[in-house]
Design a protein that fits this description.
Blueprint (H helix, E strand, L loop, with lengths): L10 H30 L5 E5 L6 H17 L3 E5 L6 H8 L7 E6 H10 L10 E10 L2 E4 L8 H9 L6 E4 L5 H13 L4 E4 L3 H10 L4 E2 L3 H10 L3 E5 L26 E8 L4 H14 L3 H8 L4 E2 L4 H22 L6
Parallel strand pairs: 1-2, 1-3, 6-7, 6-8
Antiparallel strand pairs: 3-10, 4-10, 4-11, 5-8, 5-9
Helix pairs in contact: 2-9, 4-11, 6-11
């Protein structure tokens, strides 16, 4: 066998060069393939889980969002209503799905705010999800039976204080936002009112209107028809500014009550592990939807005020909401079974 000259590289060098060239070509091809997949998202139908039954305000918000988001993304979105367990079943389904952007969930204050604060859940409301963006918020409102001789929060507090233990407030259920806002109010005023939990806000509304209870902290959307008809009297709303639908009703904040900036909120999440590129793409698409006037008008029927957020800002908001209600639940001794 001849010894190779400097102009004839050894066979091993030839193999090594060929291997490196093939590896570089493979890496380039894989990189192009990954980039191509990212650039073609979405290329199939997106499943949008909604943790409530079809019909009602949250479902309407989901369908209105999907209709417009699908146009921005150029792909079909299908609403999948998964009710039961107070949103637990739906949240588990979303958390366990493939983080490829083809399964999303419309999270809201119950699934990712009050329930994590009051119950042991089979999912981590913060770390098992990728936070895409906020859709919007809607306030809760302190409503009283119109037969009560009160005209504002100050006179209501005085009226209740003179009758300790004689008056009751209803809620949509133990651990619900309507319950926790009521407990926050009792904590800050030192009032003694009996809490009566119902199976949903509808029967709670009926008992307030009939005078079986004297106060309620429902969402503005559900209370607004009764406020306008005179069947309920609104005294104050949560949030940091007055709501445009009832501009004459002050916020708790401006009346000197702190911590009442918590509200009903709706947002979009996916399972943990979604790439930053996917999250940002979906966030940009959602924020485009939030600029559409017809979408704003549509959600006004649910008293929802649109609120565009970055993914990081949305995650920070959810974290602070969980912390807010967890602290209150501990202080008020609220701990419920899952």
């Amino acid at each position: 066998m001849k010894t190779p000259t400097k102009h004839q590289p050894p066979v091993l060098d030839l193999y090594r060069r060929k291997f490196l060239a093939d590896a570089a070509a493979f890496s380039a091809a894989m990189g192009f393939s990954t980039l191509a997949r990212a650039q073609t998202y979405p290329n199939k139908t997106i499943r949008y889980i909604v943790p409530v039954a079809a019909g009602g305000g949250a479902d309407m918000i989901a369908r209105a969002t999907c209709e417009r988001l699908s146009r921005v993304l150029g792909q079909t979105m299908v609403v999948d209503n998964i009710s039961g367990g107070g949103g637990v079943i739906a949240s588990q389904a979303a958390a366990r799905s493939n983080p490829d952007g083809y399964t999303l969930i419309q999270s809201f204050v119950a699934t990712h705010g009050t329930s994590p604060a009051t119950r042991k859940l089979p999912y981590d409301a913060l770390n098992d999800f990728s936070h895409i963006g906020m859709i919007g918020t809607a306030p809760n409102v302190l409503c009283v039976n119109p037969s009560l001789p009160v005209s504002d929060v100050k006179s209501f507090v005085a009226y209740v204080r003179q009758r300790p233990g004689q008056l009751a407030y209803g809620s949509a259920g133990a651990g619900s936002l309507t319950h926790l806002v009521g407990e926050l109010f009792k904590q800050q005023t030192g009032l003694f009112m009996t809490h009566i939990p119902y199976r949903g806000v509808a029967p709670a509304n009926l008992d307030l209107i009939s005078g079986q209870t004297q106060a309620l902290f429902p969402s503005l959307a559900g209370a607004l028809p009764h406020i306008r008809s005179g069947k309920m009297k609104a005294l104050a709303v949560t949030g940091l500014k007055r709501h445009e639908l009832i501009k004459d009703i002050p916020t708790f904040e401006e009346l000197g009550y702190k911590g009442f900036d918590g509200q009903q909120w709706y947002g979009i999440m996916g399972p943990a592990g979604m790439s930053a590129a996917l999250v940002n793409q979906l966030n940009e698409a959602l924020n485009k939807v939030l600029t559409q006037q017809d979408f704003k008008d549509k959600l006004a029927s649910e008293a929802v005020q649109l609120w565009a957020m970055s993914p990081d800002a949305f995650k920070a908001y959810v974290k602070s909401d969980i912390e807010r209600w967890t602290q209150l639940a501990k202080q008020r001794g609220i701990e419920l079974d899952s």
